[in-house]
Each structure stands twice: as C-alpha cells, then as structure tokens.
Amino acid sequence: MNKFTYASVSTTDAAIAEMDEHDSPKFIAGGTNLLDLMKVNVENPDHLIDITQIAFNQIEATADGGLRLGALVTNADTAWNEEVEKRYPLLSKAILAGASPQLRNMATNGGNLMQRTRCYYFYDTATPCNKREPGSGCSAIGGYNRILAILGTSEHCIATHPSDMCVALVALGATINITGINGDRTIPITEFHRLPGDRPDLDNTLQAGDIVTSIDLPVQGFEKNYAYLKVRDRASYAFALVSVAAALTLEGNQIKEARLVLGGVAHKPWRSAEAEAALTHQEASVSTFEKAAAIALEGAKGYGDNTFKIELAKRAIVRALKQAAGLEEQA
Amino acid sequence: MINPREYIEPGSSWPLGHAVPDQPATHTVKLNINGQDVHLKIEPWVSLLDALREYIGLTGTKKGCDHGQCGACTVLVDGKRINSCLTLAVMKQGCEITTIEGLAKGDELHPMQEAFVEHDAYQCGYCTPGQICSAIGLINEGIANTRDEISELMSGNICRCGAYPHILDAIEQVKGVAGHE
Ligand SMILES: Cc1cc2nc3c(=O)[nH]c(=O)nc-3n(C[C@H](O)[C@H](O)[C@H](O)COP(=O)(O)OP(=O)(O)OC[C@H]3O[C@@H](n4cnc5c(N)ncnc54)[C@H](O)[C@@H]3O)c2cc1C
Ligand code: SF4
Ligand code: FES
Ligand code: FES
C-alpha cells in the first residue's frame, strides 16, 4: 500500500473541498473494496477522505411513498431493515447473498454501487489490463476468463460488475441521488453503471468529486412474486458466476408486469427489456420462461472458459422465474 | 491485559520497540480496547488488525488473508463483528473494540470460549479467535436461530482444518437451540 494522508469530514461541502486540494484523492466509506485494492497497489490515492461521519445514515420514506436508503447505511442494516424486508424482500435477499456478515456490517450502500470488478488480471499489476492501465491491453480475452462477461463486452474489456445488491436495485427501478461540484442530480440506476466500450477504465458515469448521497426505491416492491437466485462455486461467501433477479406481478396465472435482471454476466447489471416483453401478458409457465431465457441470452458471446455461463444463465432464469411465480420453492 | 502498553503517548517508543517516526501524516487515535482507553500515534495506512497486533501487542486476533476473505481477523466494534484487516485504525476513533483477549473475566472464560473447549471446536486454533468473536457477533444480531441459519451466518469465517460441525455445536449450545444435546 502506498502512503497517503487522511481527513475525516462531516459535510459534503467539506468533502468536495478536500477533493480539490489533492492530486489523486478518494472517498472511503466501509473500505472493504478500496483498501483491498490499495493493498495490491491497484488503487493508489494520495489522500483519503473519510465520509462515514456525513449524515447519509438513514432509511426513510420518500414523499411519493417509496423508500430512501442513505448511501452510508451498511448493507447489513439495509438488508435487515424492517421496511426493506417487508416491502422490498428482493433487495434483502440479494444483499444477504453477497459477501459475509462481517463484510456486510462494514460495506455501505454507496460503496456497493461503486465496487470494482473482480477480474483476476485487474488485480494483478504484473499483467496488462485496460481497466487498470488504459491502452495496455486485455489479458482476460485469450486468457483465463471463467468468471468474466458474456453480454455487452467489447474488444477492450470483458469484466463484470460483481454486485448482488445492484442487480436487485435495477429490477426494482431504483434511482441514485448524487451531489457534486455542479449541484444535485438524480439518475436511474440503469444510467449509473456503463458498458466497457473503448473506455473500460470508467466503471460508471459518476464525475470526479461526485458523492452518492442516497438510493430511492419506488413504491412498487414486487413483494409477492420475486426471486433472487445466485449460482456460485460454493454455497456462501463467493461472488456470482450468474445471478438472476426476477420480479413479477400476476393476475391469476397471467403475468401483468415482469422484471428480469442478470448479475455476473456483464459490466453492469444486465436488464433484458426484450425478455421482459416476452413475459408480459403471457401465462406463467415453464415454456414462457424458456422463451424469455433464450431471448435474454441472444447475442451472448463466450470467451472459452466462461462459455458455460450462457447455458447456466438460461437455466438460472427459468428457475428464478419459477420461484418468483410460486411454481418452485425458493431456497 | 493491555499492560504494559496501555498508554502509548505521542512521541514515546513503539510498543514493540520501534521509535515513532515523526511524520506529518501521523494521527493521534483513541481506541477503547477491551474496556481500556488506548491512545495511539499512528499512520493512516495502519489497519486495525496491524494496530492491535503490531502496535499494541494484542496478537490474539489473527491475520489470515489480509483481504476480507477468511474472517481470522474478526473483532467486535461497538458490538458488531467486522474484519479488522479491511479497517483503518484511524477510522475507529473513539470506538469500543473487543478482541479475543477481552472476553474472559479473569480466569473465567466467556460462555462461547467454554463451549468451543467443550465441543473441541478447533484443531490448529488459528481461525478460533475470529470464529469466537464472529459467533458472539452472530448472537448479538439475534437473527440466526436454526443450525442452517447459524451455518450461513458463520460463512464469513473459514476453517482450514474443517472444524465446522463442532463450531456449530458450540454455537448452538450457547444459543440454546432446541434439540441440541
Ligand atoms: C471477500 C469479499 C467478498 C465479497 N463478496 C461480495 C458478493 O458476493 N457480492 C457483492 O455484491 N459484493 C461482495 N463484496 C464486495 C462488497 O460488497 C463491497 O466491497 C462493498 O459493498 C463496498 O462498500 P464499501 O462501503 O466498503 O466501499 P469502499 O471500499 O469504502 O469504497 C469503494 C469505492 O466507492 C467509493 N465510494 C464509497 N462511498 C461513496 C459515496 N457515497 N459516493 C461516492 N463514492 C463512494 C470509494 O471512493 C471507493 O472508490 C465482497 C467483498 C469482499 C472483500
Ligand atoms: S477484462 Fe477488463 S478488467 Fe479484466 S483484464 Fe481485460 S480490461 Fe482488465
Ligand atoms: S485476515 Fe481479515 S479476513 Fe482474512
Ligand atoms: S482450527 Fe485450524 S483453521 Fe480452524
């Protein structure tokens, strides 16, 4: 780890002012991703701005009847929050599928949105990586790529976004509240993360100095018919090979509304509007789900070690939809 | 328990015999460790784990991976279990930290320690301080009730020796899970 200076701030103004005064400053919240990356010299900030004393530490109702999750509330406190458990159980389930109890006690909602890829080469400073060192090349394409992406990749990067929480947030249609030098703004979570294209060094659309202040959940929580299915190499405490957030509203056996989002397959949580359209106004049945799964994976591309994910994702989608529709029990 | 290193005054020697480098980057941090206030002069990049082990001399908390992947470094901060390897000591200013050394009252072991001994819940013992602190954190949370739930919510602690069944037995006993003999 490189040497750095440190300051703790209690207001966003102070945080933004601190940002201005250093060459390569970084905010730190739970520290579970940033310190990990600093220990392997992938992140080398010259100054850390501790934002944990800023008062984004509440979960509260929004004016329109939704729920606002403070950026500094921990993943554990969010997942076990009574309102979240009752109204947005899909989010609780996704968060609890990630990391470990100790890490969830530290990890914050803002930090979870911002966490970086787990691509092995990104962590290994001895190998080329366009995300870590723009222009150096991608070691994963043509290298060992079992955990990497099959959708929305580019010739420059096939990294995945590793979050479970974000997959549920996309399914729920969350919006992200941001403050920065240019004032406040709100964006849909689908516009927060991005695809790698020719700028894989950029994980998301946040500008330097921007702070995530909170995440808003709309009223509709899909609390009756939802599933979060995570497939991984061991039963707990492992990142997803593939995960599926499925949410339905049903009228009898008819699907009125559907949300289908995949994790572990792309540079961002992968929402398939086409698959959702193929589910809407259809009967909730295995054949409908199989059609939607095929549509969701159209255009998927395997890179060798990770090609199995295409079939795995299809099967996971069918199973998650069965669970959401109540045709199979959810673990 | 923290004697003779309980008060580490700015400018005094390091507990382990090094001189404190007088760098502009150093911070003075007060931690309450196992009920005792400890004042440290420390650089911002020192993890809570290294502060405990290398600066204060409390080596009960173990370093397994140093990357949040094993749980050996688990301690309780204000009653909640965390990985001390991914925590900066400067960020825990004023917090109450409980380590494995702080659990027993004199010669009287904490019930979780007793249960680990009784159930032989370890082989080499390297993961044990983290397992015990994590198990106490789990009980404080009050969420896990069945053996399966305990198992899932103890998944943040890896045991290279595979003592898992006995670890679960020990925790079940302390929790008073029905059906436990
Ligand atoms: C061993 C291990 C296993 C894991 N397994 C999983 C898993 O299975 N699923 C999963 O989803 N996650 C997993 N994680 C990742 C974990 O969820 C993230 O590390 C965590 O959510 C990051 O939050 P943090 O508060 O610790 O962020 P930090 O490490 O403090 O910060 C991360 C980044 O976000 C920036 N940042 C933080 N807060 C803000 C803010 N409010 N505004 C702007 N920028 C901000 C920081 O500057 C930094 O660049 C795992 C982590 C580890 C170490
Ligand atoms: S996939 Fe992306 S993160 Fe991984 S080596 Fe290639 S450029 Fe780097
Ligand atoms: S040493 Fe901290 S989790 Fe392994
Ligand atoms: S007892 Fe040896 S690692 Fe757990």
Essential attributes:
heterodimer; A: 331 residues; Uridine Diphospho-n-acetylenolpyruvylglucosamine Reductase, domain 2; Enolase-like, domain 1; four-stranded antiparallel β-sheet; 20% strand; globular; B: 181 residues; alpha+beta; Ubiquitin-like (UB roll); five-stranded mixed β-sheet; 5 helices; 5 strands; elongated; disordered N terminus; binds iron/sulfur cluster; binds FE2/S2 (inorganic) cluster
Describe the model:
The complex is a heterodimer of chains A (331) and B (181). Chain A is α+β, with helices and mostly antiparallel strands. Among the domains of chain A are: 5-53, Uridine Diphospho-n-acetylenolpyruvylglucosamine Reductase, domain 2 (2-Layer Sandwich); 226-324, CO dehydrogenase flavoprotein, C-terminal domain (Enolase-like, domain 1). Helices cover 28% and strands 20% of the residues of chain A. Chain A has helices at 12-20, 34-39, 75-79, 82-87, 89-96, 101-106, 109-114, 120-123, 165-172, 273-279, 286-296, 308-324; strands spanning 5-8, 25-28, 47-50, 59-61, 67-70, 175-180, 183-188, 211-217, 225-231, 242-251, 254-263, 270-271. In chain A, the strands form three sheets. In chain A, strands 4-5-8-6-7 form a five-stranded antiparallel sheet, with no helix packed on it. A four-stranded antiparallel sheet of chain A has the order 9-10-11-12, sandwiched between helices. In chain A, a hairpin with a 2-residue loop joins strand 6 (175-180) and strand 7 (183-188). In chain A, helix 5 (89-96) runs antiparallel to helix 9 and helix 11 runs antiparallel to helix 12 (308-324). The radius of gyration of chain A is 20 Å and the shape is globular. The model of chain A has no long low-confidence stretch (mean pLDDT 97). Chain B is of the alpha+beta class and 181 residues long. Chain B has one domain: Ubiquitin-like (UB roll) (Roll), CATH 3.10.20. Helix content of chain B is 27%, strand content 14%. Chain B has five helices and five strands. Chain B has helices at residues 48-55, 111-118, 128-141, 147-153, 164-175; strands at residues 27-33, 36-42, 74-77, 80-83, 96-98. In chain B, strands 2-1-5-3-4 form a five-stranded mixed sheet, sandwiched between helices. In chain B, a hairpin with a 2-residue loop joins strand 3 and strand 4 (80-83). The longest helix of chain B has 14 residues, at 128-141. Chain B is elongated. In chain B, 45% of the residues are buried. The interface between A and B is medium-sized, with 29 and 34 residues. The complex binds flavin-adenine dinucleotide (FAD), iron/sulfur cluster and FE2/S2 (inorganic) cluster (2 copies). Residues 117, 119, 121-122, 129-131, 138-140, 148, 157-159, 200 of chain A line the site of iron/sulfur cluster (SF4).
